[in-house]
Amino acid sequence: MKLLNKLLLYLVLPIVVLLGAVAAVGYQWVTRPLELPSAKVDLLVPAGATPATIARLLNQAGVQVNSGAFAMLARATELDKKLKAGGYQIARGDSVWDVLRRIALGEVTSRQITIVEGWTLRQVRAAILSNPDIKKSDPPWTDQEVPRLIQGGTALKSYPPEGLLFPDTYIFSIGTPDTEIVERAARTQQRVLEKAWQVRQEGLPLRSPYEALILASIVEKETGKASDRARIAGVFINRLRLNMPLQTDPTVIYGLGEAYTGRLRKVDLQTDTPWNTYTRNGLPPTPIASTGLASLQAALQPEKHDYLYFVAKGDGTSAFAKTLPEHNRNVAQYILGRKP
């Protein structure tokens, strides 16, 4: 019996020691902080990715891991069955286990992009395409293709692209396709527009939600102070009722496009384009910018008054007038600098 015990001791003990050493090395590998090429590394895990695929993507991102060991760890912990697609961020101090667990739990890293009120579609497109965390279409989409990118059933698909994307802050995961951002912004615009249209003021000279969107975009560009928004909208509503030209500079500037040099000249006001509201009555054919909720609500619930004119006072507010002589006096005071 003593001989058998000694034999077992000599045979089993080395195996136990070896297993213990392997376990210690394995534990150290699993919990040791990874070496990163920078303070933070973003990792995009595609749908259906296997542990081997994720290990390969990590190595390509400069995070060196043993592919076989990574896959073995995932299988041993049964996390290989829970891996979720999305964008993840790896920070200094993270271990292999931290990364694997994060992907299994779907703890995607959030990013955000803000579409600013008053931006043109060209500016919105530039912001989306320049965001490093958004996956870009190849080839890049153009402004004219926006209606095609809206995959849902939104009614806005049938209209020109300007103004179709609602200005807001959109949260997304790293690697989200740019087309998804576009569709989300369009669906938000459709939802906001429909809701505002349902509670519109009665008797407005607006035939459709799209016309409301056009007017709201003008209000957006003309308003320097939020408290003036509904009153400015009321001026344009009054002019539409009387079939007076809207005579608003932002529409002229939009119609000039790249020809606009930063200073609006008299010849510009006299040069006819579809958006020149000095040479044409009624609303322009499209919105001229992205429209926020406040401007949309102002266009559909304008202040009721008798004003037909307004001019910027230089401090963000506007001076309003009911008659042309009164308006001319305001122009002389606030634009030409003459004392009243």
UniProtKB/TrEMBL annotation:
<dbReference type="GO" id="GO:0071555">
    <property type="term" value="P:cell wall organization"/>
</dbReference>
<feature type="site" description="Important for catalytic activity">
    <location>
        <position position="222"/>
    </location>
</feature>
<dbReference type="GO" id="GO:0005886">
    <property type="term" value="C:plasma membrane"/>
</dbReference>
<comment type="function">
    <text>Functions as a peptidoglycan terminase that cleaves nascent peptidoglycan strands endolytically to terminate their elongation.</text>
</comment>
<dbReference type="InterPro" id="IPR003770">
    <property type="entry name" value="MLTG-like"/>
</dbReference>
<dbReference type="GO" id="GO:0008932">
    <property type="term" value="F:lytic endotransglycosylase activity"/>
</dbReference>
<keyword id="KW-0961">Cell wall biogenesis/degradation</keyword>
<keyword id="KW-0456">Lyase</keyword>
<keyword id="KW-0472">Membrane</keyword>
<keyword id="KW-1003">Cell membrane</keyword>
<dbReference type="Pfam" id="PF02618">
    <property type="entry name" value="YceG"/>
</dbReference>
<keyword id="KW-0812">Transmembrane</keyword>
<protein>
    <recommendedName>
        <fullName>Endolytic murein transglycosylase</fullName>
        <ecNumber>4.2.2.29</ecNumber>
    </recommendedName>
</protein>
<comment type="similarity">
    <text>Belongs to the transglycosylase MltG family.</text>
</comment>
<keyword id="KW-1133">Transmembrane helix</keyword>
<keyword id="KW-0997">Cell inner membrane</keyword>
<dbReference type="GO" id="GO:0009252">
    <property type="term" value="P:peptidoglycan biosynthetic process"/>
</dbReference>
